[in-house]
Design goal:
Length: 423
Amino acid sequence: MSNQPPPTAFKITLPSPSSPLHTATVSAPTNIACIKYWGKASTQYNTPINDSLSLTLDQVDLRAVTTAACSTGFDQDKLWLNGTEVEMNSSTSKRFRACVDGIRACATEKLDAEGNVLVGKEEWKTMHVHIASYNTFPTAAGLASSAAGYAALVASLVALYNAVEEYPGQFTAIARQGSGSACRSLYGGFVTWRAGGKVDDWSDSIAEQVVDENHWGEIRAVILVVSDKEKETSSTKGMENSVATSKLLGYRAEHVVPTRMKEIESAIHKKDFESFGKLTMMDSNQFHATCLDTYPPIFYMNDVSKSVVAMVHAYNEWAGELRAAYTFDAGPNAVLYTLEKYQVELLALALKYYPEIGESYVNNAELRKQAMDWNLDVGLVEAVDKRCKVRAVGDVKMVYCTRGGPGPQTLDDNCSLFEFVSE
């Protein structure tokens, strides 16, 4: 997976600069929050009003790939996303500059194999950067594509500049200035983002790894992509409105989240799926309740999303235990956490009530086959039928079966998104 060349459509061909060229390519994962962050304490530093916790997902199908290149031969900074050059507006430029300038300030010397200095620490400041990035999954549809994208940007710059942190977690503090949840994608496994706020510059608003991806290897995720379109209300705009108008949001941040954070971290350490799943679903429900409490209200979930909630509760009640747990970020797409031993059964249930469009509907062909061959219990089907109906083909666009995974990975030169050619 990691060292496959990029799709041709995302490859950028440029003339070779006349001076030395330095590049680095990395991939970075997305993450899905179990305890949500919604609302900013500081818009200047892009910090949250409450702690949050997420699972970093495996990069086999869901990742951002970014190449960072710099040279004194470049006359300006440039950015390409999914093969198209991006015009730097005020928002993009501010977030982009925060990451580039923040990591470059941590740059160190670049040495060759014999220890000779190729680039001095101060020389990096004389070079413009070119950044190219692409996502392997729907952008802006509620699958944390910006988290993967900005994590990949920061990780590629760290590799390019041979950057070193001045304090633990500094790179995550820089990443969250690009996109808040990007800070959590710099680590694998379960990761928390501490809200911070005890220091004036918010440098204590950083991500910390709770456990790595190997601690609870049985955790699986089945993702139902209900929409692959950009959401009507951006997360940034939604948060602004919620902070300004929702009294429930403030109560949640002060009185609910602190206790939930302690409880879910304990459940993760103990591998207690019953507690983990219940807390995850309750927090998803409350997050969307704050969106409804916003004026005017924000509707990220749709009827298909609500039917998934009904299906999951019917499944758990039939089983007499918690086997699946849903969570919805700022969008209609459902992430269903489960354990490895129930993954095929849950997928079979999803395929019955959300019929597939074609054989590529499920990203994992082997799991799809197992699910198609699975005989669902008659009692289970009867229980779910009382809660929801079989949806129309196309109501769910794609199903991803995945698991927890590591943080950013350095890729080979053949994965570079740039091709520099002599004129």
